[in-house]
Amino acid sequence: MAAHQEKKFAQERKHKNIQNDTKASQGQWGRAWEVDWFSLASILFLLMFAPLIVYYFIMSCDQYQCSLTDPLLDLLTGNKHLSDIWNKTPMLTYRAAGIYSLWVTFQVVLYVFIPDFCHKFLPGYVGGVQEGAVTPAGVVNKYQINGLQAWIITHVLWFANASFFHFFSPTIIFDNWIPLLWCANILGYAVSTFAMIKGYFFPTNAKDCKFTGNFFYDYMMGIEFNPRIGKWFDFKLFFNGRPGIVAWTLINLSFAAKQQELYAEVTNSMILVNVLQGLYVLDFFWNEAWYLKTIDICHDHFGWYLGWGDCVWLPYLYTLQGLYLVYHPVQLCTAHAIGILMLGLLGYYIFRMTNHQKDLFRRTNGNCRIWGKKPEYIECSYVSVDGTKYYSKLMTSGFWGWARHFNYTGDLMGSLAYCLACGFEHILPYFYIVYMTILLTHRCIRDEHRCCSKYGKDWKRYTAAVPYRLLPRIF
Ligand code: NDP
């Protein structure tokens, strides 16, 4: 809808094709990319080491009770060789390959073949066919929003199996965790490589492809903006929002089941991790239509960063707290547990309200109330690849007046709560907050770089009005 409105305004004001003077000052949105040495070094580092980092974390739990230092000490002191660790690592199995193929196929079927019915009976839920934002080439894609339904069906089947059918044990995910890691890697690399080839030879929309001329950059950050197969199979929405995120809550449930099997109880820390992360996942699916307007879908191209990241990084590293608690069951005192719950809920509230305020503001084109008042904003304009001039608004009210990315601040508070639920014995569960801080700070900078090139001097007016990024008066 917002995309439509933006387009309508552009037409109404009859400013088409008057962009030449504007281009000079604000670059061409979505295409002004140079691969600097720092980006290239980071990309090469990630391509080489990200799979090893994931392996190291998971292996540490499997062989060293989640200690991150012991494997290194063993190797440095010559106590063990790399081959000793590798030889103890479970390999790919037919069983894991079967489970994984079935899982991905099932999610494809739910995504492609079952149109959304949730929006027909859930008040307030936006599902079914929805429009994304305007792409740099001026395209508005349509998406089948049925993630909530996929999540519900999957979880109903999971609970039906655990309670009645007993076709497989709920610990199945934990029991095959490392063999499944190899399957996830195979899919992650396969889909990223396919996306690269597709970008060169049969792109869905050639005008929305971005070639930087650097092979590694293109492989990592993607060439195609919205690769699709057929009318509805959208790579970005599927890989971002299905196999990994639907699995997130199942993985946590499987870890809880393993705790129950090993210790005959599920600790309150495990329940907290399941509840807080479950809320985050459910929020994602409830707001899937809103998600079409986030950076992942609106601005990122589809390459290894999203393809491999969604298949491997997300399900394996976002679930480290639950995995850790299988090896170290932590029973928190009531005050500690309540403190964490409060921090998690407050973080969630800030995250959701900030996102909601922007969504409401953009959907109504500023004709709404934020904290009981008409929102204040800065009018801005930008130019798409085909030369059309568009108008937009940057809100300076509500949480968006406190900081330019207060939604990230809420997200970070929630992330910290998951980590704190695991106590203070090991650093492994704290990886998530460290990673999220780096990810979201980098995202802030990346987004602002893009917005600056998109809005030019209007963006500078906005940053003068809202000078802080994450924390008022601090950063
Ligand atoms: P935002 O939702 O903050 O979107 C940024 C975009 O919003 C900008 O590019 C700009 O787009 C527009 N915008 C910026 N400032 C304003 C303003 N003042 N008024 C109106 N519009 C504005 O970022 P993300 O897409 O990164 O994040 C969405 C959520 O997802 C966040 O809450 C984040 O925490 C979460 N997230 C979680 C991750 C995880 O792994 N758990 C990873 C990434 C995000 P435009 O071009 O339209 O002007």
Structure description:
With 475 residues, this protein is mainly alpha-helical. 63% of the residues lie in helices and 7% in strands. The chain has helices spanning 2-12, 20-26, 37-64, 70-76, 82-88, 94-113, 118-121, 147-165, 172-175, 177-201, 215-221, 235-241, 243-263, 268-286, 288-291, 295-298, 304-317, 320-327, 334-363, 399-402, 406-420, 431-455, 457-465; strands spanning 128-134, 140-145, 228-229, 233-234, 377-383, 389-395. The strands form three sheets. A two-stranded antiparallel sheet has the order 1-2. α3 packs parallel to α17. Mean pLDDT is 89; it is low at 1-29. NADPH dihydro-nicotinamide-adenine-dinucleotide phosphate is lined by residues 294-295, 351, 355, 358, 361-362, 392, 394-395, 400, 405, 407-408, 411, 443, 447, 451, 454.
